[in-house]
Write a structure and sequence with these properties.
This protein has about 70 residues and is mostly beta strands. Helix content is about 0%, strand content about 15%. Strands 1-2-3 form a three-stranded parallel beta sheet, with no helix packed on it.
Length: about 70
């Protein structure tokens, strides 16, 4: 099976509309990621590790249950 850890050169990840409630930590190993769409899920906390995605130009978090955003 292909896991996220095998996709280190991935540039776009679209995982909207999947009832996701937690962003898995291995997502933050995708340092080539430029676009991350995790809209329309059940996410309530954005981990501070999101700042490790220094190539990320677009982050879509619309329509989640976000209560905590790291500063």
């Amino acid at each position: 099976s292909i896991g996220v850890d095998n996709l280190l050169s991935l540039k776009i990840l679209e995982i909207a509309y999947n009832k996701i409630d937690l962003i898995q930590s291995n997502i933050f190993n995708l340092l080539s990621l430029r676009k991350l769409n995790i809209s329309n899920n059940e996410i309530s906390v954005i981990p501070k590790e999101v700042y490790c995605l220094y190539n990320l130009g677009e982050l879509n978090l619309n329509n989640n249950k976000i209560r905590v955003i790291p500063i």
